Amino acid sequence: MGNKVKKVIFWIVILFLCFIACYPVWFLITGSLMGQSQLQQVLGPALENGDGYVSFPILPLYPTLRHYVGILLDSPEFFSMFWNSVKIAGGILLGQVIVSVPAAWGFARFSFPGKRVLFLLYIVLMMMPFQVTMLSNYLVMDGLGLLDTLWSIILPGIFSTFPVFLIYRFFTGIPEALMESARLDGAGEWQIFFRLGLPLGSAGIISAMVLGFLEYWNLIEQPLAFLKDKSNWPLSLYLPEISLSQAGSAFVASVLAMIPALFIFIVGRDYLERGIVAAAVKE
Fold this sequence. Notes:
The chain has helices at about 1-30, 35-45, 65-75, 75-110, 115-125, 130-145, 150-160, 160-170, 175-185, 190-200, 200-215, 220-225, 245-265, 270-280.
């Protein structure tokens, strides 16, 4: 009897925590389906400095798709920002595949003078927040004449050190005996990289791309610092200042922005878990 009570309490606690974790998503979906009058009623105390407290219902009183129609059919700036986000995230991830994968392979499979010092530098740079490197990045982009363009966001992201660190862990797990067998069969270093390294390290590459997409799809500080022209802003900056009249559009924009990230997370969930485990293993 005691074990059954413990199991019931355990599942109650788990379900309660799941509800807390999922409620913000349900909050967005519910808000996107509310009419303007109900939004004014429930959000007025918060957004108009009114009296009382915000009381958000679990279900909308009169569900409507009016805000979705307004965003999808009557908001060209939304699609402009959406494609800016696609260009930024896609450009960074493509560049990281070209730059970070060979760099991780070099660290994992070759010995050269200063290797440990250089890798330690990579780790130090990885731990630095954007605020520390913002000024240097700004000056470099200004010197290249790339400020206020999407390249001012894409180029620093391409040379991020975190993908190198993560993919490196997977490349070091490839048995050296397998590499020697390939060399005895006459395979060159590039052949080994393309035919052994990439297939065997694909889990690390994909996990790095999934983590990268989740980060670069939601960039806020970098675009605010480097992009002055609002036509270059990504979707993460859509309606940064929410008023009561824009609340419905803000809810819908948040839901639509969440869909690509949620899709990528679900597709790459297994690879993401393996990448997190690999990143946590000490060398």
